[in-house]
Amino acid sequence: SFVGPAIDEGDSIGAVVAGALAEAKKLGFAAEALVMDGGSTDGTVASAQAAGARVVVERGGFAKALRHGIEEARGEFVVVMDGDGSHPLDRLGAIWARRTEADVVIGSRLVHDGGMDLPLYRRLLSRALNTFFQVFLRVPVADSSSGYRLYRAAKVKGLIGRAEGFEFQQEILMQVLRSGGKAVEVPIRYTWREAGASKARVLPLALGYLKMTWLYWSAA
């Protein structure tokens, strides 16, 4: 199951859905695409449906959209990706190939051969926050904030968390690891969106990561 949260991604969501389903077919597995729509006012819903996605309305924010999407997913594995085309679909095969090794396979921008085509301040912030999280919680993952992931559905369904924003990525990773699960990373090249506007805001993003670090560090 492909799950992607989206708000006003009408310029890109159709290509993302169609591309994901085409890659799945190429790799030889049955797939569905779920777009978790946060209240789009452009052509997001129509574009997603035309490309073959099932659209589920979820206006509760990023974390709630992904939790809801994971619960709605019918596949044995759930691939989460952005709806703006930033995540390279040509790396899906490499991610899929490692599904038997771990409960979470992360498309990583911060391992060898990975990278980020982002404004400098965003690259520096991402590296700093990921390093902070890795050092304080001893997480064996370089890119804990990556939103391009494959989950073993049985390992993540039913999880209840406290994250409200993009720190959901760290929270669900910690939940899997602390329940005995394993994570591995596959290098990807993340590209900056070509259309639409980013929904991430720097200060809330940083505060969310720090909150999640404190929550799991204090509970260790």
Describe the protein's architecture and organization.
The chain is globular. α2 (44-50) links the parallel β2 (33-37) and β3. 40% of the residues lie in helices and 17% in strands. Strands 3-2-1-4-7-5-8 form a seven-stranded mixed sheet, sandwiched between helices. Strands 6-9 form a two-stranded parallel sheet. The model has no long low-confidence stretch (mean pLDDT 90). With 220 residues, the chain is an alpha/beta fold.
Cα distance spanning the termini = 32 Å
Strand content: 15-25%
The average pLDDT is: 90
Quick one: overall form? globular
Q: Strand arrangement, largest sheet?
A: 3-2-1-4-7-5-8
Strand segment tally: 9
Q: Give a quick account of the main beta sheet: strands, pairing sense, barrel closure.
A: 7 strands, mixed
Oligomer: single chain
Share in helix: 40-55%
Unreliable parts: none
Order of secondary-structure elements: EHEHEHEHEEHEHHEEH
